[in-house]
From TrEMBL:
Protein family per UniProt: Belongs to the methyltransferase superfamily. PrmA family.
Provenance organism: Shewanella yunxiaonensis
Pfam families the UniProt entry points to: PrmA (PF06325)
Subcellular location(s) of the protein: Cytoplasm
Entry function: Methylates ribosomal protein L11.
Protein name: Ribosomal protein L11 methyltransferase
Keyword tags: Cytoplasm, Methyltransferase, Ribonucleoprotein, Ribosomal protein, S-adenosyl-L-methionine, Transferase
E.C. no: 2.1.1.-
Top-level taxon of origin: Bacteria
Length: 296
């Protein structure tokens, strides 16, 4: 079904009122967009901050007459009487899943490792190929934070090693580690959809018998790994530092990802209590920290 879209330039103060009224007036979905390029990377738990310049995008059935909607908005919302900057657009109907699938291609990381979407042909059958369908979880390899971890895993000798993937998402890092030769892996995530996606991807890659998956509350006490990779944001990495450190064996290796370049130095200092830390590696706005666990 084709759609018609009303884009209204607004701000953080008025966006919610606009959204409520647009829903009352028949919009089938509302999206808030960044009106300028001001990304919000780490909202606090329970907070949904909006941009100072917020574009409210309301979707309607293509047959909707938007003229009465616009009159109603102006009459009911006094702030629109001063400035009402809007645009109406026709939206062609697309199969968005199909579109996303068409744009996701095999990618190589480091020397040996390829991530191949499960619906594509494998470019190099002799490489270490992870066949991936992320499902509803994060982790395709296209995001710089995941790419930095995959490159790091590819650079390690993982034979006979036990690996923890903390914040496993699609399971991409745990499965990659197993296919690169790790003896076993543990994936931990707060999201049960990530646990499901990780299990599916491990099955797809015939490594499910070497992967254990846990929600944090079910995680066995006292587990420790030779290699731990955690691609979560700086906030949880800061808060969970003692817990993450305790999951790594003496002389074990650590990689932290999901932090912005300007957050790397602070995180490096925190983790220096337990690890001998390397200089950060960067990709676009993102940094990866690596280190080796001290024998305390
Ligand atoms: C950025 S994704 C990373 C997914 C995948 N490992 C990758 O590198 O692409 C972060 C994942 O960490 C999970 N996560 C966030 N906070 C967590 C926590 N405190 N404990 C465990 N998992 C967490 C999220 O549910 C999400 O699946």
């Amino acid at each position: 079904m084709p759609w018609i879209q009303l884009r209204i330039h607004s701000n953080s103060e008025h966006a919610d009122a606009l959204s409520d009224l647009l829903m009352e007036l028949g919009s089938v979905s509302i999206t808030f967009e960044d009106g300028k390029d001001t990304p919000i990377f780490e909202p606090k738990l329970g907070e949904t901050p909006l941009w100072a310049d917020t574009v409210v995008v309301a979707l309607f059935d293509a047959g909707t007459d938007l003229a009465p909607v616009i009159t109603e908005l102006q009459q009911q919302l006094p702030f629109l009487q001063e400035q009402f900057n809007y645009k109406i657009e026709q939206i062609e109907d697309k199969d968005w899943v199909r579109e996303w699938m068409d744009n996701f291609h095999p990618i190589q990381f480091g020397q040996r490792l390829w991530i191949c979407p499960s619906w594509r042909e494998i470019p190099d059958p002799n490489a270490v190929n992870v066949i991936l369908d992320p499902g509803l979880a994060f982790g395709t390899g296209t995001h710089p934070t995941t790419a930095l971890c995959l490159q790091w895993l590819d650079s390690l000798e993982l034979r006979d090693k036990e690996v923890i993937d903390f914040g496993c998402g699609s399971g991409i890092l745990a499965v990659a580690a197993l296919k690169l030769g790790a003896k076993s892996a543990i994936g931990i995530d707060i999201d049960y959809q990530a646990i499901d996606a990780s299990r599916d991807n491990a099955t797809r890659n015939q490594v499910v018998d070497r992967l254990s998956l846990y929600l944090p509350q079910d995680q066995p006490k006292g587990i420790q790994a030779d290699v731990l990779v955690a691609n979560i944001l700086a906030g949880p990495l800061r808060e969970l530092a003692p817990q993450i450190a305790s999951l790594v064996k003496p002389a074990g290796k650590l990689a932290l990802s999901g932090l912005l370049n300007e957050q790397a130095e602070e995180l490096r200092e925190i983790y220096s209590e337990w690890f001998t830390m390397d200089a950060p590696a960067h990709k676009e706005d993102w940094s990866r920290l690596t280190g080796v666990r001290k024998s305390l």
